[in-house]
Structure formats: C-alpha cells, structure tokens
C-alpha cells in the first residue's frame, strides 16, 4: 500500500518535471535554432537582398519635459524611442516550437539600428538604456529603449516671458546611409503624447515630425533623418506675478515722486530707491536669460523704458527742487518762465493759486499789470499808514501833513512842542523802517512763491507725462506680446 502511494507521488513529480522541461525546452530549442544552428550573426544587416535597405519604423513617446535651460540653451526630456524593423534571419514557425511566438532577448544579442540623437547635448552622447528586444516569429523586431535626452535648443528670447520655443530633436542612423537603412516615422502625426506629464512652466503645443532626405553633391547616397520639434509655450502666470506686476507697481511709484512736496526733503531718495529696486528686478530677469545680444527680450525693453523714465524723473525732480528753493536774492525770474510755466502751462494743467490777497489774483492777470510797483500790496499798506497817521507814505509829501498833525496834537494837549516833536519824528522814522522792511519781505516772499508755483507746475507736468508714459509703455508692451495667458 505504502509502496504504491510512494510510486504514485514519484510518478506525478516526474510528470510535472517532464511537463516543465517540455515547456522550457521549446524556448531553449528556439534559441539554439536561431542563434547557433542557423548561423546567425548579429553584425549582419537583416536585409534579405543586400541591395535593398532595411525598413526601420521610428517613433518617440514623450514622457515629460524635465527642464528647459535658457542659459545653456538646452532641453532635458524623458522619452521612449520605439523602433520596429523586419529581420528576415530571425523568423521561425511557432507551431514547431510549442507555439512560442515571441522571444525576448538582450540587446547585445541581435542586430539593432544605430539610431542616435544628432543634437544631443549630454556628455555621453547616447543616453538610451539598453533594454531587451522583442522578436516575433514572423520576423518583426521591436525595441523600445527609454532615456533622458538632453538636446540643444536655440532659445529665442525676443518675446520673453510671452515666448514660444521650438526645440528640434533630430534622430537618424549614425552610420547607415539611406540605401542601407530606410528610416521612416511610424506616425505622420508626430510624437506620441498619450502618456505626457504636464509641465508647470511650459505648455506643450505639439510635437510634429518631419522626415528629411538629404543628398549631397559628393556622394550618391542619401542621408535620412527624422526631426521632431517640441513646440512649447511658456506659462506666464509665474512671471506675471513675480516680475510683471511688481515692476508695474514699482514704476507707478515713480508717480509719487511728483506728488511728494519738495519741503518733505524725500523726493530724491525716493527716486533713487525706486531706481534701485528696478535694478534688482532687472538682475532677476537677466539671470534667467541666455547672455545673448541677438535679441532684446520684450521685458528688457519694458525695463529699459521704465528705468529711463525713472532716471529722467530724478533729473526733473532736481530741477523742480532747484526752482522750489530759488529766492530773489539769487535769481530773477525770467519772463519766459513766468509766461510759459506760470501762465500757459498752469492754465493747461488747470492749476490756480489759492491764498491771500497778494496771491489771489492769478499770475496771468498779474503779468498784465504793467507797473508792478502799483500793485495791490502798495495800495493797501499805504492806506493802512494813512489810516493810523493820516499822512502820506512819501517822506517829501509827508512833511506837511505830519507837521499839521503835530500842530493839532500840541494844540489839543498843550505840551512842550520841541521834545514831543522830536520823539514823534523818531517814532515815525522807525515805523517807516519797519513798514518798508515788511513791504520788502512781502515782495520777496511773493517772488519766492512765484518760483514755488513754477516748481509746482513743473511737478504737475512731469506727473502727467510720467502717467501717460507708464500707462502707454505698459499697454504697448502687453499689447505687442503674441499671447498674454498660456
Ligand atoms: C498550438 O496552437 C494550435 C492552435 O492554436 C493548437 O492546435 C496546438 O495544439 C498548439 N500546440 C501546442 C504544443 O500547444
Ligand atoms: C522607405 O519606406 C517607405 C515606407 O515604408 C517607402 O514608402 C519607401 O519607398 C522606402 N524607401 C526605399 C528607398 O525603400
């Protein structure tokens, strides 16, 4: 009984062993058949007729754009290459080999086309990973080596940061000419994007392919390459938030420069601070750009405009401050300044001078008054004196009335005339001195105010020009961009 059981289990074990060996046997037999018995040589180009080329179908499957390096002008992408060709010498009849219809062998064992990326920018030129090759019983071979491809890409920065980039990936056989290896694309639509992982910085627009067949005068052979073009568009949100908006804000701060009153004493330092912060942004932008002089990026033009405006603002602020602090001791106001700045421009900018009696009349009206000495100030101060002392301002004229006044006083008070007369005369002299001094001060402050008003008009003019320029340049730059949002 026990012996029978033992025999049975041994039998099943042997049977299962036999079955396994039967399964493995086919593949082993097939390998032996393909690579030993048939005299296969992997260096042989698998063309049945040597005068015909081997047809190789080629395609790329783009996985991800990992990095676009604007400074070194290259692009790093993760891709799978897909190559299929027909090998007449790797065929078998599947039914003879236990229905084994596909065989997977290492790349080193069979012939593979030597397709390389011509415009590679990596240190070890070929980055493909040597994966296995799939052989089919009908002779078709499939090889899909993945790889990280760093390729050169001429970066065109003209429209930065609203730019599109076209990066070529040129594939071709390194040694086989067109007569030996007929390279064709497996899909006329271009690269396969079904497993593409989107990139945060770049938007993929397309991956078209073009087949080039080049023939040089020297040789009868043709050279075939497939050029895939990665068309990417920069996503502008990042640059909008981190460069454009701060830049617009800072440039609009320049307007404050002309609103800040000169007496605050901060005008120049504000201007210089704005200029410096613009410089910092310019450095940030310049760091991402390739150091090329082929083109000036759009944002560079914008920065140049804004910085020019800022520098000019500082220059004009100095002029404004100069005007503001002028006094009649050092400057006389030229007629044209009075006419152009205080007259026309003030009218054009709808500015009027509010304030006291001396300044209530607008300067245009004042300019029309021919004799400045007979202005309202003189009339008023004279009437004040006359009210108090009942006399004329002019000393020559005053004598008579003063004497009459004194006489009246003497009469009414019955005082010693000579001493009183002396006292009152000296008082009057003092009064006259004080009055003339005040009058002089009034005149001076009037002229000073004229200068201040001229400075104000200039400030306002600069403000308007600056506003128009900032708005105009911002709109012009944004409008000239090929696309704003991506
Ligand atoms: C191979 O496949 C054919 C048809 O599919 C079948 O008739 C035959 O039995 C199979 N041979 C083996 C060894 O499995
Ligand atoms: C290359 O292959 C393509 C497509 O398979 C074919 O149309 C063309 O005639 C072939 N060229 C040569 C020279 O064999």
From TrEMBL:
**Which intervals hold domain Neurotransmitter-gated ion-channel transmembrane?**
243-477
Q: Which residues cross the membrane?
A: 237-261, 268-286, 298-325, 461-481
Query: Where does the UniProt annotation place the signal sequence?
Result: 1-18
Classify the main location: membrane
Question: Where in the numbering of this chain does the Neurotransmitter-gated ion-channel ligand-binding domain appear?
Answer: 27-236
What is a single Pfam family found in this protein's UniProt entry? Answer: Neur_chan_LBD
Q: Which UniProt keywords apply?
A: Cell membrane, Disulfide bond, Glycoprotein, Ion channel, Ion transport, Ligand-gated ion channel, Membrane, Receptor, Signal, Synapse, Transmembrane, Transmembrane helix, Transport
Q: Where in the cell is it found?
A: Synaptic cell membrane
Membrane disposition: Multi-pass membrane protein
**Which family is this sequence assigned to?**
Belongs to the ligand-gated ion channel (TC 1.A.9) family.
Name listed for the protein in its UniProt record: Acetylcholine receptor subunit alpha-type acr-16 isoform X2
What does the record give as the organism's lineage?
Eukaryota, Metazoa, Spiralia, Lophotrochozoa, Mollusca
The gene it comes from is: LOC101856899
């Amino acid at each position: 009984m026990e012996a029978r059981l033992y025999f049975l289990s041994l039998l099943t074990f042997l049977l299962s062993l036999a079955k396994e060996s039967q399964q493995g046997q086919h593949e082993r037999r097939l390998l032996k058949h393909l690579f030993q018995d048939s005299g296969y040589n992997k260096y042989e180009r698998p063309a049945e007729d040597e005068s015909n080329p081997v047809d190789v179908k080629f395609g790329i499957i783009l996985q991800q754009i990992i990095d676009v390096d604007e400074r070194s002008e290259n692009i790093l992408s993760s891709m799978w290459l897909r190559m299929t060709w027909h090998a007449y010498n790797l065929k078998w009849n599947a039914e003879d080999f236990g229905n084994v219809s596909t065989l997977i062998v290492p790349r080193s064992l069979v012939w593979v086309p030597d397709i390389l990326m011509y415009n590679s920018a990596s240190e070890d030129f070929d980055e493909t990973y040597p994966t296995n090759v799939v052989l089919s019983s009908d002779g078709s071979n499939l090889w899909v080596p993945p790889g990280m491809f760093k390729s050169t890409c001429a970066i065109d920065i003209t429209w930065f940061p609203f730019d599109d980039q076209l990066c070529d990936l040129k594939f071709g056989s390194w040694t086989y000419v067109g007569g030996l290896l007929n390279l064709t694309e497996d899909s006329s639509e271009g690269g396969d994007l079904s497993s593409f992982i989107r990139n945060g910085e770049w938007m993929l627009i397309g991956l078209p392919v073009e087949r080039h067949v080049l023939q040089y005068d020297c040789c009868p052979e043709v050279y075939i390459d497939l050029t895939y073009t990665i068309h990417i568009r920069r996503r502008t949100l990042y640059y909008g938030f981190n460069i454009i908006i701060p830049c617009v804000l800072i440039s609009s701060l320049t307007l404050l420069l002309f609103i800040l009153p000169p007496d605050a004493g901060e005008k120049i330092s504000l201007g210089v601070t704005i200029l410096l912060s613009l410089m910092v942004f310019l450095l940030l932008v310049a760091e991402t750009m390739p150091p090329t002089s082929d083109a000036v990026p759009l944002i560079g033009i914008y920065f140049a405009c804004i910085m020019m405006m800022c520098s000019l603002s500082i220059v004009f602020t100095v002029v404004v401050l100069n005007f503001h602090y002028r006094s009649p001791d050092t400057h006389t106001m030229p007629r044209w300044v009075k006419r152009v700045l205080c007259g026309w421009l003030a009218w054009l900018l709808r500015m009027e001078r509010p304030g006291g009696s001396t300044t209530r009349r607008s300067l245009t009206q004042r300019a029309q008054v021919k004799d400045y000495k007979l202005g309202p100030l003189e009339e008023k101060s004279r009437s004040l004196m006359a009210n108090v002392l009942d006399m004329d301002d002019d000393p020559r004229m005053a004598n008579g009335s003063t004497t009459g006044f004194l006489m009246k006083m003497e009469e009414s008070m019955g005082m010693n005339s000579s001493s009183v007369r002396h006292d009152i005369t000296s008082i009057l002299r003092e009064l006259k001195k004080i009055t003339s001094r005040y009058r002089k001060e009034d005149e001076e402050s009037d002229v000073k105010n004229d200068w201040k008003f001229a400075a104000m008009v200039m400030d306002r003019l600069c403000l308007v020009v600056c506003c128009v320029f900032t708005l105009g340049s911002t709109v012009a730059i944004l409008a000239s961009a090929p696309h704003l949002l991506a």
